[in-house]
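Hey, can you fold this one?
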Amino acid sequence: MSGVDAGIKMQPAKEESGKMTSRVAFLYKFFLEPGKIGSITPSSSFLTSAMLASLPWDHMETIVELGAGTGVFTHFIAKHKKASCQVLVIERDFAMRKLLRIAHPTFHYGAKAERLDWLLHRHNLPPADCIISGLPFAAFSKPLRREIVTAVYHSLKPGGIFVAFQYSLQMKKTLNTYFNEVIIDFVPLNMPPAFVYYCKKQSAAITGRRVEE
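Sure. Predicted structure:
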């Protein structure tokens, strides 16, 4: 077997090994801090496609991902974004963030979603065209949920899109308070089944909006 052939044949095994390492790390983190991880398994391909496939990839210059975890959405973003598009990835867990940096070294990184507007400024990035979230909002306190959604709203450009998945409709009222357009889809083939929220910030600036739960 030639060196080239060996490299080709070994590549899938290397990729599968990387995926397995990520799954093990995800499972380990879930058992350590289930409130922060939110689910015992990473998001499925069904959920990823339902959330992200129809986004206007050719028109987005700045994308943010919140709660990247093992990078299921991150990898999809890397494959579909245009070359000039800048990406900011937010992941609180240091070990997971380190793995993502290795996999996607040209992306920007941060740890706290509630400081999103500050992080965009720090990395010299404009307001986002799209913010994609895998955060388990149901596991957060009300004040933290408000901080994050406020940061998301102020970090989107007018007309920008916020897309998130949850395992309940708990966030519907909160998101309707901020966004003039909220569409909810259901993905039954994910495990567990999930709701996908598509929220659009209207073009005219709105001030003085508050979350009421």
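The chain is about 40% helix and 20% strand. Let me know if you want another pass with a different chain boundary.
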